[in-house]
Each structure stands twice: as structure tokens, then as C-alpha cells.
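Re-running the complex after MR caught last week's input typo. The corrected sequence lines follow. Everything else is unchanged.
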Amino acid sequence: MKRTVRLFAVVACALFAFVFMGAEKPKGEPIRAKIGVISIITGQGAAYGEAITNGIKLARDEVNAKGEVLIDLKVEDSSGKQEQALAAAQKLINSEKVVAIIGPTLSNEMFAAGPEANASGVPIMGTSTTAKGIPQIGKFVFRNALPESQAIPASVGQAVKKYNIRKVALLYGNDDAFTKSGFDTMKEVAGTLKLEILTIQEFQKGQADYKAQLTKIASLKPDAVLCSALYNEGGVILAQARKMGLKVPFVGGNGFNSPKVIEIAKDAAEGLIVATPWFGEKSDPKVMAFVAKYEKAYGKKPDQFAAQAYDAFYIMTNALKAAGTADRAKLRDALAATKNFQGVLGNFSFDAERDVVMAPNVLIVKDGKFTIFN
Amino acid sequence: MFLEQLINGITLGSIYAIVALGYTLVFGVLDIINMAHGEIFMFGAFASLLIVSKAGAPLPVAFLGAIVVTAAMGLLLERFALRPLRSRPGASHLASLISTIGVSILLENVAHKIFGSGNHLFETPFAEISFTIGPVTVYLVQVVILLISLFLMVGLSLWLSRTRAGKALRATAENLETAGLLGVDTNRMITATVVIASAMGGVAGVLVGMAFNYINNQIGLSMGLKGLAIIIFGGMGSVYGAMAGGLILGLSETFVVAYGSSGYRDAIAFVAIIVILLIRPQGLFGQAPAEARR
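Corrected-run output:
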């Protein structure tokens, strides 16, 4: 009896496989898929969301024009809030039935939306979520944002060597997972390089006045300041620091890498050192083409957030092509198998834990622009 | 370092005080908290930014421009968000609180559309002038900010207590109907109050730009909340309370960073406010007429 059941099952499986193979789309027919995007469209941090959605839309237009896959984008606003990011994820997963999600913008938000997508079996990829533990949320959670744990040792290490730094002050935003995790890494790196930490100062997002913290740092006379901030706050910090006479090198985290820092801080940005996956001045034809197209479409240079989002969309659609069908589980497996993808950020692979494998560039601001630091 | 931090604190506190003065004036007369005040203040900052950095005009023009823009916004606010509610019998005075919240959300998003969400550099040669006293560098802007806030405080309290218009305003605050019967044009007085309060917000906007070099479309929210805390702390409707409260908050925030932990900056400042309110529930200068007259 048992044996007949098993035999029957095997036959049924074979039959089903046959039927499904037959149902597979013939070559030439494009794969149609809905991809959800969760980003900050309104409120504090909308500048990041704008860059990200711009990058994604540019990539979508290019991919759709080629015609192998046709992507329908569903963009949802998270306002930078965890609960709204979660609600957006639920809407995309259950009502819009998207095959995958790109976003959300902040690591904080990913810690809310990631588990939901993972539980529903929907691949979700953060393009700017660099905090520790993001891909560890679950096997459907990816990121193509270089984590600070890889970027910061590179920048701090090179700065210490060049300027013979011994004593440092640390300054970071304590209300954001992104800047907090950058700070943790900085502290760790300072420990391994045996740097003396003179003081640790904190600030909050959107603060206008950093003079109290900076006055304290200046009075302790550090050799350098390690600062974990996003560019919006970071630019202001630099300007106020230089104005009050704090002229030592600043080493920034990943969030500092944006032409906007220079736009905001002007001359005060000189000497800022960052490590970054994205460098827009590279002579790589792929990078130059992307910068030109982005500038033409949006009237400004792409920053790291735009570049990462742009690459993320290509990684997603390449995986979709490899999967051959708009199926969530198959897409996940194809995504996880991504190796040596050549994007505008350089050579990109996922490791076994769905985290980033790539080499960062260390840059310094010189004469009003980022140049390679050496 | 102590002197430098003292100057930082006084500068921050003076700006808080001017923002709070705008709140306190409207509350003292109308018994409403104008939640849109912070956003009007932010528009004042942007108006002066455009005048200074885009048109390259000198600073006095920027002040004038900011005052004109914010005064006009105050006029519109009164005309469209407050007066229609006032003339309705039975409308709760919370209704105007809600309508001003609506205006504040509208203004914040309009600013986002026009100016974007990032920080804007506020550059004036005036903000670079500094002199050194002993080991301390003082920027002229910091002195000017303190002077302007003191001037506004004294001017406002003199205007309220010594002039005919001030008397009419106090009468309006005391009792709308009676003041009307006695020949005070109450609508005009109320409009004037909202316009003056908004113009003071405009002045505060320019000062913030000069002091911190940066403005964005969110400063209205953060500064507005501080201003709100200050008027409760200083005593609702009290001009001196707004000033004292502003300075205390600014100084305590700065010194928490200087000698304590910067992570608890806001927390400790607000705990201090709560403690003082527990001891003096009416606020620091709280024999305010707004409370006494009932």
C-alpha cells in the first residue's frame, strides 16, 4: 500500500514537472514583475529617499527599454519611520503582491520591515542599510550597501598612517542605527589601532547647533575627529567646527560620502576623509555613463545613495533573468548566487550570509572635490 | 572653555527666547497656542536666506524682507485659520489649535517642495566678524542676537504696559466683548497681535541663520517645540518668562554637553523643566494675567 502511494507520488511529481516545463514562457517573451520600493519620500531624510528613488527609476527605464524584463515599480513612502516602513512592506507584500522589495532607506526601518518580508518569503534588499546584523535578519534579506564595518577600518587606518594620529575625539548621531553602528566600528578600530579616545560626543538628527559639543572637543586638542554622521548633519558639523578653529582631520563614516557635504560645508569640507563604495570621478566607462545619464535626468550629480540604488535594481533584475520567472523563492536563490556583478560601484558579490563583498575607495576632499587619498 | 560654552548657551537661549516671545504674545491675547509659529519662523529664515545669498542684498534688507514675509503670513493665518473659527459660536478654542497644526503641516511641506529637504548654507560676511577677549573668540552675531532678544523683550513689555495700543490689546485679552463695547476694534487688535508675533518669528529666523550658518525645512518643528516648552516653563503669556525660560533652556542644554553627557542633552534640560514646574506649576513668572483673570 505504502509503496503504491510513493510510486503514485513520484509519477505525479514527474507529471507536474512536465506540465510546468511546458508552461514555462518561451524565449523572447519578457518576464513581467512588480518590484516594490520603500523609501523616505517625505519628512526628515527625504533627501536620501529622493536620491534612491531617482537611481532606481533611472535603472528601471534602462532595463525596461531593453525589454528582457518589464518591471512595474510600486514606490511606498516610509517617512523614515519604523512603523510606516513595516506598513509599507505589508502593503507591498499582501496587496500589491510584489516579487521583491528594494529598500527601506534606514537600517532602523529594515529592522522592522526585514523580518516581515522574510517571514512572507519575499526577497528584500536594502541599498543604504549599513548597520550590523541586517542580512542576519533572515535568508530573504539582502543588502548591497557596504557595511561600515568594512569601510571604516580602511579610512581610519590610512588616515592614522598618513597623519601619525595618536589621540582622537569621537562624535556621532545617537538616534540612528546607521550612525550608531558606524560609531561602534570607529570605537573598535580606534581600539585595535591603539588610539587614545579623548572624548565621545553625541548629537541628534536634525540638530542645528553643534557648538557645545565642538567646543568641548576643541578644548581637548585631539589629532583627529572620527565622526559618524549622515551628510546633512555632517556638513553642518564640519562648517561649525572649522569656523571655531578646530582644524584637525575629520574621518567620516559611509554617510559622509556625498557631493552634498561639499555643497553644504563649502571650504570647511577640505581634509575630510571617507571610505566609500561609490566614487563618481572614476574613469570607468560604466561610471561615466551613469553619471552623465543621471545628471541629464535630474540636474545633479548622483551620490552614493543613488548609485547603490541603481546597482541594486540591476542586481535584482539580473537575478530575475537568471530565475527565469517572477517567483519569490526562485528569485531569492538567484539573488544569493550573485557573483562578480559589474556595476557602477565596481565588482560586487554576495557572501554566504547575503552580505557585501567589495573593495572600498578611500577618498579625501581636496580643492572642493573628492579625490583618491594616498 | 567655560566662557566659550557660556556664550554658546546665551546665543542658543536668546534665539529660543525670541521664538517663545512669539508664542507667548499670541497666547496671552487669544488663549490659543499657535502651532504654526515654528513654520512661520522657518519661512522667515528662508526669506532672508534668499535675500542674502541669492540676491546679495545687505543684512538689514534681509531682516526687513523676513519681517514682511512673516508678517504677511501672520495676516493670512489670522484671516483664514483663526478668524473664521472665532466668529462661530460654540467652536471650542481647541479648534484653532487644530487649524494652526494644519497650517504648520501645510507650510512645512510647501517649504519642502520649494527648498528641498537638505541643509542650506546661510552665508553673510556679517556672520564672520569676530573679536577676541582674552582666550575667547566672540562673534559679533552672538552679541547682536542677545541684544535683539533683550530689545524685543523690553520693547514688547513696554508696548503692552505703556501704550494705548498695548492697553487695547490687554483689554481685548481680558474680555473680547467688553473691549468691543468700549470701542476697541478687537478684530484689528487680534490681527495686529498675530502679525507682530509672526514678524518676531521672522526675526528669529534670520538670527538662527546667522548663528548656525544653516537652515532646513525642519528647524521650525524643533525650534517650535522648544519655544512651546519655554512658554509653559516661563509662565504662559509672560514676556519676561519667555526670555528667562529661553536663556535657562539654552544654557542648561549647553552645559549638559560641556560637563555631562551630550547624549542626554535634551533629556536633562527637560527634566529640569519638569522639576521646576512641579515646584511652580504656574511657571517661573506665572502670575500671568491669562490665569489670574478667571
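None of the earlier attempt is carried over here. Chain B has twelve helices and four strands. Chain B has one domain: 2-292.
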